[in-house]
Design a protein that fits this description.
Layout lengths: L2 H7 L5 E2 L2 H7 L5 E6 L11 H12 L3 E6 L3 H4 L6 H6 L2 H18 L10 E4 L1 H4 L4 H7 L6 H6 L1 H8 L7 H21 L1 E7 L3 H15 L4 E5 L12 E2 L2 E2 L9 H9 L3 H11 L4 H13 L5 H15 L1 H15 L8 H10 L2 E4 L9 E2 H8 L5 H9 L3 E3 L2 E2 L6 E2 L9 E6 L3 E7 L1
Parallel strand pairs: 2-3, 2-5, 3-4, 5-6, 9-15
Antiparallel strand pairs: 1-6, 7-8, 10-13, 11-12, 11-14, 14-15
Helix pairs in contact: 11-12, 13-16, 13-17, 14-16, 16-17, 17-18, 19-20
The protein binds one RNA strand of 83 nucleotides through helix 14, helix 17 and helix 20.
RNA sequence: GGUAGGUUACCCAAGUGGCCAACGGGGGCAGACUGUAAAUCUGCUGGCUUACGCCUUCAAUGGUUCGAAUCCAUUACCUACCA
């Protein structure tokens, strides 16, 4: 199966230029790139798709380039807060690129001899160009008439409330310049990106053709949406990051486990490297016995393996089994210790448990499970709070030393899946 | 620069002197049912309080009034029309 057919099967092709020619081009190793904005020092699951797609190309023998938008990122989206943008100094951007590179190493192979991945920063070739030169050499090739016809621009121009700034209007020129530059310097012939990038990609294709009479190609990936219409990758706690310091391995694993039934198989295709047969088998199991959630588990395991490694995944799985497996009775301290490392943990002074102890409501606020005592009380009265996996409906309840597991842990839960361990110091 | 209109909780949005911590919808959280699902139903959704109740909120500041989200003045921001 060719890379193109594989992407098609996985539902990863939203649009592409000259399908026939592109497929022909991809029969031989090709250099391709995808860009990302280094606006944060960390990747989240939302911007994983193009990078995983790069990996798929790499596995098929192509040469991937991950392009950090050191230049484009510094311009960014002007509708955001101006302070925010100024804070993204060169140092910050460089720092972000450096830390993101570490994360990219998990996705792309930078070491292989045949077709190593590369990480480039468009600031290196954009920053030295003077405004005047840019206008003469690049701007000259763009027709404003065509630019305002692009969907991204037109939408903003029709939205009179927001409008579009000159800076943002120019964004596509910078991205087009990247593509042209990469074609010239690295013989890069394909750009992939999210479907919102279509206009920017075609701008680059046209610029390359005009400047060097070279044909390059574009391919866009669909914007991933949950079936229920919500944005993929967002939870109540915010984005799901690939850095374990920002999103614990357990939470990362849980994020995938909790995928909507209707999305599970689709996400297996989009995100994992599982083959056609494996996914077909999982799809069948999922259809026959959805409550077993075989597809969810495979998805969660594959993704956690990919990002955090198998050992960490095993621990997250063990913690999940314990927490959702039922009663804590008969659990060994060693096993429980596994959980402690996975779920959020807060410390509690031992003296707070002396005598009458601490009101449960306070413990809930301290743990971060409830935003206020009032809310904590309502949650308890609503039956949403468990101590050591046993429901506690009494809002007057105090927690004391007697509630401790193994003399030092207190397992609090709000709702079905929000756990916090309080550790006594 | 002129004129008119607007700014209410996470978002949308009612409220035009006391019955307003503020209708309704969305979102969110929790419960029942389940499979850590979907759909459905129920409760909650400013803070403190066991409770009676108290406190802080309707862009900001000052004022009128026994009493202000509501009236007046000033300021800031947004929108529309005009220049």
């Amino acid at each position: 199966m060719s890379i193109f057919e594989e992407l098609e099967w996985r539902g990863l092709i939203a649009d592409c230029t000259d399908k026939v020619e592109l497929q022909k081009k991809l029969t031989a190793p090709t250099v391709l790139y995808a860009g990302f904005d280094p606006t944060a020092d960390c990747l989240h699951v939302g911007n994983l798709v193009p990078l995983i797609a790069l990996r798929r190309f790499q596995l098929c023998g192509h040469h991937p380039i991950a392009l950090a938008g050191g230049a484009t990122g510094s311009i960014g989206d002007p509708s955001g807060k101006s302070q925010e943008r100024q804070l993204l100094t060169k140092e910050v951007l460089d720092g972000n690129i450096a830390s993101v590179k570490e994360q990219l190493k998990k996705l792309l192979d930078f070491e292989t001899k045949t077709n190593p991945a590369r990480l480039l920063d468009n600031a290196t070739w954009t920053a030295p160009v003077s405004f005047l030169d840019f206008l003469r050499d690049i701007g000259k090739h763009f027709s404003v008439n065509q630019m305002i016809a692009k969907e991204s621009v037109r939408a903003r121009m029709e939205d009179r409330e927001t409008g579009i700034s000159y800076t943002e209007f120019s964004y596509m020129l910078l991205q087009a310049f990247d593509f042209y530059h990469l074609r010239k310097e690295c013989n890069c012939e394909l750009q992939i990106g999210g479907s919102d990038q279509w206009g920017n990609i075609t701008a680059g294709i046209e610029l390359t053709r005009k400047k060097m009479s070279a044909q390059v190609y574009g391919l866009t990936l669909p914007l991933i949406m949950n079936t229920d219409g919500t944005k993929f990758g967002k939870t109540a706690a915010g984005a799901v990051w690939v850095d374990a310091k920002k999103t614990s391995v357990y939470r990362f694993y849980q994020f995938w486990i909790r995928t909507d039934d209707r999305d599970a198989v689709r996400y297996l295709k989009i995100f994992t490297f599982l083959g056609r047969e494996e996914i077909a088998a999982l799809e069948q199991q999922h259809a026959e016995k959805p409550e077993a959630r075989a597809a969810h588990k495979a998805l969660a395991k594959a993704m956690t393996d990919l990002i955090h490694g198998e050992n960490a995944t095993a621990e997250a799985m063990r913690a999940s089994e314990i927490l959702f497996g039922g009663a804590l009775e008969g659990i060994s301290e060693t096993t429980f210790n596994d959980i402690v490392g996975e779920v959020p943990t807060k410390e509690l002074a031992r003296t707070a448990l002396d005598g009458a102890g601490t009101p449960l409501v306070e413990a809930l606020v301290l743990s971060g499970l409830c935003p206020s005592k009032g809310q904590a009380r309502k949650d308890i009265e609503g039956g949403g709070v468990n101590i050591n996996n046993l429901r506690e409906a009494n809002a007057q309840r105090h927690v004391t030393a007697q509630d401790l597991l193994f003399g030092k842990y207190l397992l609090l839960r709000k709702g079905k899946r929000n756990y916090v361990v309080l550790t006594v110091k």
